[in-house]
Amino acid sequence: MHRFAVALSCLALPVMAAGDPADSPIDLDVARQQFAAAQAICGADGGRFWGVHLCGPIIFVDQQTRQVVANQQDTAGSLREHDGVFTGSLPLSQNVASTPTHWSGVLWTQITWPLPQDASRRDTLLAHELFHRIQDQIAIPLQHESANGHLDTLDGRYLMQLEWRALVAALRSTAQPARRQAVVDALTFRAARYELFPSAAREEKSLELNEGIAEYTGVSVGNRTRKARVAMTLWDLDAHSGDETLVRSFAYATGPAYGLLLDTYSPGWRQQLRTAPSLNDLLQAATHVALAQNIGAAAAERAQRYDDGGELHRAEVTRETRRQQALAMNRAKFVDGPVLVMPVDHANIEFNPRNLRPLDQLGTVYPTLRISAAWGVLDAHDGALLAPDWSTVTVVAPAAGAVQGPGWSLALKPDWQIVPGRRSGDFTLAGPQR
Length: 434
Prior knowledge:
With 434 residues, this protein is of the alpha+beta class. Helix content is 40%, strand content 19%. It has 3 domains: 4-116, no CATH class; 149-306, no CATH class; 331-430, no CATH class. The protein is built from 10 helices and 19 strands. The protein is globular and about 65 Å long.
């Protein structure tokens, strides 16, 4: 799975010189084929799916070398034309990630290279990322994404995976009664999770209306037949079942699953998204499902159908032991011990959504994280703690005067320096005086 970034703002740093295309790790002929595939997706859609054309500027970026191949010229002259494609290098101020990217005067759909070889997965990825570039033109209220820490707990993960298995059964069912029963089961597992975790409904909805709808778009627009869309959604559900954590990756599975079921039960349902309802509420209304009053008991009874003799629950109990050990380690690193705390305003943030570790109410530990901000660039490869509101990032304190520490390095800009923090042994950053 490609890496994802959240681009909060762009920094105006010097652009690296364009490289010789012969030295590029991106084969230009293959890149042309991928641009043609994107154009074919856009042409087949014609702007009908959301009322907005998906086509636009695209850059492919190699993560190791930062080499760029684009489908059009930029406005700042950073790219050179080579037989219909444009090459250059992405500056260090920008993260390499599949995400909308403002750079060199253009809003691009940035996609990390290489793309999947499987045509269905490639076209799903292309349509997903093309959607993100035009997402703010669609009347779906933008949601502030939440931590979804409950999905790192034993009960939260267990109920989510039971829900996924019920969604698989619903998508595979050809008989209407069996499909409807599987839908009831999926909604039951979700309702039981929301009863256990009061904030879960709000937190999950926020991500499903962002990444979930994007992946549903990728599946729907990137695949021409219902059979292919179902197959791709089943692939999503299976691929994420092995994720180390589900707190941010779950919506890539639930979004297309609920979307395809809503296509069956309530054609035209996308028009209702302008009021930001949850996907499960829409599906429950479309299927006229009345959930059991004792939702916990109903979920426990239905779990027997989906849990392979309790194997899933036993695996989650084992994982919970490891999670508690990781929590203790992360508290020692980022709370109890000396730390360096840095502000995260006006920053680009790159991370892997499949391995995040919530740390109680203190934020989320990102095992790998790259942040480019006003003070420079942080590369963390052994954990960093982002505050719940993304206002600060915390790493283990360095030795006095050092710009690197255990598992991280910092490229600090001129006029910024590391200074003592609030606690003895802690540090923070001080910028230029204004």
